Amino acid sequence: MNLEAGWVARCGRCLLLASLVLFAAAFSPMQASAQSGNGDNGTVADFLLDNGMEVVVIPDHRAPIVTHMVWYKVGSADEPAGKSGIAHFFEHLMFKGTTNHKAGEFGARIAEIGGRENAFTSYDYTAYFQTVPPDALETMMTYEADRMRNLVLTDAVIGPERDVILEERRSRVEGSPDALLDEEVQATLFQNHPYRIPVIGWMQEIKELNRAEAVDFYNRYYAPNNAVLVVAGDVDPDDVRAMAERTYGKVARGPDLPPRMRPQEPEQNTKRTVTLTDRRVSVPSFSKAWVVPSYHSDQPGEAEAIDLLSEILGGGTQSRLYQELVVKAGIASGAGAYYDGTMFDDTSFTVYGSPRGEADIYAVEKAVDVEIRRIIKDGVTDMELEKAKKRFVRSMIFARDRQSSMTNIYGSTLATGGTVQEVAEWPDKIKQVTAAQVQAAAAKYLNPDISVTGYLLPAAEPAVATEAAPMPSPGDPAETESGLPDPVQADPAHTAPAN
Amino acid sequence: MNLEAGWVARCGRCLLLASLVLFAAAFSPMQASAQSGNGDNGTVADFLLDNGMEVVVIPDHRAPIVTHMVWYKVGSADEPAGKSGIAHFFEHLMFKGTTNHKAGEFGARIAEIGGRENAFTSYDYTAYFQTVPPDALETMMTYEADRMRNLVLTDAVIGPERDVILEERRSRVEGSPDALLDEEVQATLFQNHPYRIPVIGWMQEIKELNRAEAVDFYNRYYAPNNAVLVVAGDVDPDDVRAMAERTYGKVARGPDLPPRMRPQEPEQNTKRTVTLTDRRVSVPSFSKAWVVPSYHSDQPGEAEAIDLLSEILGGGTQSRLYQELVVKAGIASGAGAYYDGTMFDDTSFTVYGSPRGEADIYAVEKAVDVEIRRIIKDGVTDMELEKAKKRFVRSMIFARDRQSSMTNIYGSTLATGGTVQEVAEWPDKIKQVTAAQVQAAAAKYLNPDISVTGYLLPAAEPAVATEAAPMPSPGDPAETESGLPDPVQADPAHTAPAN
């Protein structure tokens, strides 16, 4: 099971997987192919079941497969104070037995028919998916609807799974200097909002998670009226509706949840730095982050402008940062920007860089700052804006090529307060952004005196090369086409549920 | 009404009131005169009323006055997430009318008899006090017991008072660069614990505080079984008991509160900085802080060792920092250390300094670091340890000189999980601390690579001198004798309740 925090930690502030970083910059989940329809594949259907469950069906008849995803509108930012990690913990528990099926039965069934499955948890949502032949879709729905309400949550189930998660944290976070740094950058950047708390949870709080809390969490958040079903593939929307009614439709509506009001950020006034010096680091790197609006929290048009700012400043090999620092000056082995726009509340905008040859990290940071100031002062050219818009539009077309991209775009948008209509309108809204809006966004949000910079530095002693994380070259075109990284691809070790 | 956060903001990380800082270092609230008794003044009495209210009586017959304080075991760190400021807000509301007395009546009565009153809110407690002639004590108790349960909390009361508090925040925090910096240093130092949130609350959350939340807060926390009554003065404990039974004793017990379990700090791994550059700053300064155990959260003996470490390193003019940086090297106008030991959970240890003449702030910081490393490497001498212990013991004797010091020592100790016995045993525990323990505390907690440094810097343009806060010379002996700063003295503008 994946943890989206893992993606952030690996790919984010610390830029160790720059190709994944690139996805974020070049490929907002808001980007989607559905304008009025879905190309030659038919119209995207969107309806509600009687119990409040939203259903989105994206027809895609190119191959006899279907991707079935359920997105719960609950993530780590919804956790009670002091109970960090319970959203992700619960994701693991969903692979345990129910009153109708033994643990492992669902997974075995998927494996038997050659399908794939996984799940992931992020700040705003938790999602479960399977990719299977279309004739297995109703079976998937039956199992998924079953575990929405019928999990058996005994201490015998909870205890061992908590140990699995503690081990996961040890390996993914404590074992990774960039993940450790990312956690403290995030905790420093967000002074009040729960995005400051790691998705996987703080070690000391994971240790205390117990059955009563898991049951409360399940009863509160795992209900059809807090979930979105997204189905993409070789299916007919009417058939999907009938199947959904026969399966999910039988699950009783859960409690009406209050609006998702998380503590918001105060006005920030300071420039902050967070430095991790670690022997396991071989190549130093830095990232600089700001709190900026998301697609859900912004004023109209702002998030689109920030998306294009991110693309022009640091999205891939055509971006200013890459061209100036990596290609022309040759002082950086990598440099870029990314923006996590598909979030419920105000989110982060990040620039990053890593030195090359004799250059030191502070020279790279300075050069990045120069490029930011240049946009604030002189704006962007119409030509680079047009090119960035074209790259975005093209990426939409590529997104259609993977069912998982499409389901992720719809699911993450709907789970963070967006609508199918917003997904459809996104390309037009991108086209309407002006150069002046991009400049204004940079001037408004990228204040160098109010920012958080993370430095990942090698310890004085030489690092052990084999322990250092690899630094893929940014701009891997395969990744720019993928939309949201395919969770299965991103973590092949977890294609089978953890036990 | 005072806000203890105000003291911290003014005196703390930003060292602008170094004499108050000194109090914190040289005068732990755990220090008290009561060993088995209270010198010639009689034994400290400690008992419970039937409704669960704890009462401490400290006889002091030198003058015909009495200090009457009620401490509620609730502070800003107990606030629900997203409702910051409600503890302090509630402190203001306590000066409004009750079902028995109009707003202002209590205060007018105190003024009439020449008494003084005030209140303050901190992370772990909220306290109310009056100093009056002994024959007015029962009247004070009557009024105080009345407002414990009978406040009239209408929207007409809540709205205007919220505006008062918003103005208080604008003036005390937004109007003060050091307070602004302190807030963000604190939010950076504590990554998870609510000590990260300002006592006065974040502006955007204060704005949303409403009647329903105030009523909930009142019903939950303002009850005799969540309060400690501390009376010091020219009174007989048996008489106080009888009066307390006649007044507070009639207030019904409140709900049983669960243990105060706040989210705890994760393991920290990074070195962080927080920089505020502001035109109102004329003299730059820095502070460096670490999360360390408090008297309530420590392993036996640790807090005492940290207290002595703070005293030897940076407590007043005899300390290493002052002697080395101010006296010998002449590079600092002030330098010191302080430790907030009387806290419920893990707290902070801070060193600070400000340059003088041609020296820059980073040279001062480096010199402070050298002194810390020297203690970690070579420890402290037996002679300086003995001297520090003597200063502590002497300060206890001085503490007896002010009723407000004594009431503050008992009240803050009892409100943060301590006992009267711990107050009594504190001097002996201090005497038992060894040089090795002081060195071990420095080595364990003052890791330069895991710390948070705040820099308060003048903007490029020259500061307006009149706006800069004054920098009193550290080590004002009057303050070292005062125990907790007298809240009335600390903020004379607030001796009468607001508006």
UniProtKB/TrEMBL annotation, chains A, B:
Residues 1-34 form the signal peptide. InterPro entries: Metalloenz_LuxS/M16 (IPR011249), MPP/UQCRC_Complex (IPR050361), Pept_M16_N (IPR011765), Peptidase_M16_C (IPR007863). The keyword Signal applies. Pfam families: Peptidase_M16, Peptidase_M16_C. Residues 209-391 form the Peptidase M16 C-terminal domain. Keywords: Hydrolase, Metalloprotease, Protease, Signal. Residues 55-200 form the Peptidase M16 N-terminal domain. Residues 251-271, 465-499 are annotated as: Disordered. GO terms for molecular function: metal ion binding; metallopeptidase activity. The keyword Cytoplasm does not apply. SUPFAM superfamilies: LuxS/MPP-like metallohydrolase. Belongs to the peptidase M16 family. This is Insulinase family protein.
